[in-house]
């Protein structure tokens, strides 16, 4: 939480804002960090509760969904935690599981998720729930159940499609990792992946300079912009490796 608070305030000041509370808890700039903190906290409590572990996790899922139903339009933190916690939990269970047979089964059936993902996108409604509801009501000749259809659309978009999407990405990554000519690029990507916290926090900083008076935005685009947004955080990570205490305060351990 220390890096989250520090960098949220820094971004506010750079943007000329002083609504720190709103930027921290209502519409967070670095929303991923506070959501990750909440997920980690719930998991930490459940692991140490031992006998009540699954009760706490199930209760957290229900609570987050209930809060989402009440405050989804007014609080970005609650909205995101409700959508992402089930996937965070599934990832923990899958990759921390000691049951190798389960992991083997999952990998063997990744192709199914990869196949179903493009199909699922055909029915992906994103924010057009009202259009979907009106079409279903017209087709069935009913005027009620709009709320249930809305909930079903939310579940489909954010759970079903997302799950297939994860399996699709996992399948593609697994196939590419087996190709000999991609082994070196994969190693480079893995190296960069060690510094995702630096990249996540600092890549946005480049926007303030690129869009400001220091650089002409028209001259920096495409691969050049990508290079700058990667190079700046990686350079910061390298320099701060010589000051580990400062690095831990600003970016965590």
What is shown here, in short?
The chain has helices at residues 2-14, 20-26, 31-49, 53-71, 76-96, 100-108, 110-122, 129-140, 146-177, 183-193, 196-202, 205-210, 223-240, 244-251. It has 253 residues and is mainly alpha-helical.
Task: Tell me, briefly, the overall form.
Answer: globular
Tally of structural domains:
3
- End-to-end span in angstroms? 12 Å
Multimeric organization = single chain
Strand content: under 5%
Order of helices and strands: HHHHHHHHHHHHHH
Structural class, from helix and strand content? mainly alpha
**Helical content (DSSP H or I, runs of 4+):** over 70%
Largest sheet: none
Estimate the mean pLDDT confidence. Answer: 76
Query: Number of DSSP strands?
Result: 0
Q: Taking Cα atoms only, what radius of gyration do you get, to the nearest Å?
A: 22 Å
* Count of individual helical segments: 14
3D architecture notes:
The chain has helices spanning 2-14, 20-26, 31-49, 53-71, 76-96, 100-108, 110-122, 129-140, 146-177, 183-193, 196-202, 205-210, 223-240, 244-251. The protein is mainly alpha-helical. Mean pLDDT is 76; it is low at 213-218.
């Amino acid at each position: 939480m220390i890096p989250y608070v520090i960098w949220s305030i820094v971004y506010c000041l750079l943007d000329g804002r002083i609504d720190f509370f709103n930027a921290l808890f209502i519409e967070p700039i670095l929303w991923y960090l506070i959501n990750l903190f909440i997920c980690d906290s719930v998991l930490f409590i459940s692991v140490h509760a031992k006998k009540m572990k699954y009760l706490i996790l199930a209760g957290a899922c229900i609570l987050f969904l209930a809060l989402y139903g009440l405050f989804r339009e007014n609080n970005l933190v609650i909205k995101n935690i409700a959508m992402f916690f089930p996937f965070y939990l599934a990832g923990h269970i899958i990759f921390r599981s000691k049951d190798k047979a389960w992991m083997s089964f999952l990998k063997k059936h990744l192709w199914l998720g990869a196949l179903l993902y493009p199909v699922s996108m055909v029915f992906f409604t994103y924010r057009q729930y009202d259009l979907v509801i009106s079409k279903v009501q017209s087709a069935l000749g009913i005027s009620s159940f709009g709320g249930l259809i809305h909930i079903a659309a939310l579940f489909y978009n954010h759970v079903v499609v997302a799950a297939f999407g994860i399996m699709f990405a996992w399948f593609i990554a697994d196939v590419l990792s087996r190709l000999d000519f991609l082994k070196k690029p994969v190693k480079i990507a893995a190296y960069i992946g060690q510094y995702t916290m630096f990249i996540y926090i600092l890549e946005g900083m480049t926007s303030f300079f690129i869009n400001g008076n220091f650089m002409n935005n028209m001259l920096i685009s495409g691969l050049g912009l990508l290079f700058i947004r990667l190079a700046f955080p990686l350079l910061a990570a390298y320099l701060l490796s010589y000051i580990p205490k400062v690095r831990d305060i600003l970016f965590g351990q």
